[in-house]
Structure formats: structure tokens, C-alpha cells
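Case study 2.
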Amino acid sequence: MNKKLQNRMNRLLPGGIPKYIRCYESKDDCLDPYTVVFSGRYRHFTGGRFLYISMSASPFHPQGIGQHGCSETPIDTPTYGHLGRKITFEELPEDCRRLVLKDYKGLWSLGESFFSDG
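Prediction:
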């Protein structure tokens, strides 16, 4: 990894934790209790839309859910109560963290393809 990419990783993923996300957990009886909203200045890549992922605890499982979505406005501002309570990235289940990291790295050009399985 070159120094420029390493500096970018340190800035956008301090300690391996995505800097520009907001995480939520819903206690409602639903199939996708976890929502992660991507924030930051990436919208020039998405036509001005805001990205998010709604997922089950096992988004890679054949019966799991890992649904990407986008909105013209942030889905969690000015309020986020409909998404559940705010949680930290570390509170997400392991597979959810893996999916978020994969997409986050792709979104910020940190070495993985955006929304790919590669």
C-alpha cells in the first residue's frame, strides 16, 4: 500500500472504524433490524443521493437480508426514531460490520469495489 492510500485509510478508517457512517438498531419485530447510513462528501459518486443499508444480523446468509438503498435526502435527519436507537459500529453483528466495511471502502476508493462481492 502506498503512503497516499495509507494516509487516506488513516483519515477515513481511524482504527479500522468507518468515520462517515451512522448506525441504528430497531427493536421492532422486523427482518432487517440494522440500518447504516453513509455520510460524508461522497454524493458526487451517487448523483446526489444518500446511501444506506438495511440488514439482518447475517446479511450474507441465503436467508439473510442486506438491502442497499438511496434517498434524495438523508433518511435519519432531522430525526431517526423510525430507524431505532443509535448504536456504535462495534455493536453491529460481525457480518454487518463486514458488509459495511466492504461498501465503505468501495465508496471512498480504499481498495474494494463498491457494492461488489470481490
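The longest helix spans residues 94-107.
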